[in-house]
Amino acid sequence: MKTVKVLKDQSGAALVIALLMMIAMTLIAVASTSTSIFEIKLAGNKRSSTDAFYAADSGIQVVMANVENFNLTGKYVDNKYDPFTDPNNPNPTRAEVTTYYDTTQEGAPRGLGLSATGNFEFRHFLIESTGYDQTESNPIKSKCTVEEKVVRLIPTTQGGY
Fold it and tell me: Which of 94, 153, 75 is nearest to 120 (CA)?
């Protein structure tokens, strides 16, 4: 008779069920918090890498906008030139840019479709730009390097005209 009375006494069952529910809710809350923190870090890293890419790309755009950067007289030392030593090239994103004069390539670039290639001189350049993210609060800086090939066409003097 005593065992039947123990089975019918449910005075602690509500407490056990409530504790189990609290443990389940705590596990769900911890999992969602850690997932949210991971997503925030991932989004911050993506933003930093995008900032670094745009900083590197802006360095290339600034250099390409000034045709004097591709003038060989007095600027290129060992076929290399840092365009941001020239005050005519602003550097708002603090990109590190080096322009190389490629002496190994000659003639028109492939796929250009120029038929009158005899009337032009082709100078091949490679612009290498490295940009960093501009966030001051991030201790680890994102870095991106972008390279761009540029060909300068220079008309040659045509004899007889």
Answer: 153
pLDDT, tens only, 42-63:
888 888 889 999 999 999 999 9
Q: Is 8 helix (H, G, I), strand (E, B) or coil?
A: helix
**CB burial class (10 A; 0-12, 13-18, 19+) of residue 127?**
buried
Whole-angstrom Cα distance, residue 105 to residue 158? 23
How far apart CA 1 and CA 86 sit, in angstroms, is 101
149 forms bridges with which residues in the sheet?
A: 126
What's the pTM? 0.71
On average, the pLDDT of the chain sits at: 84
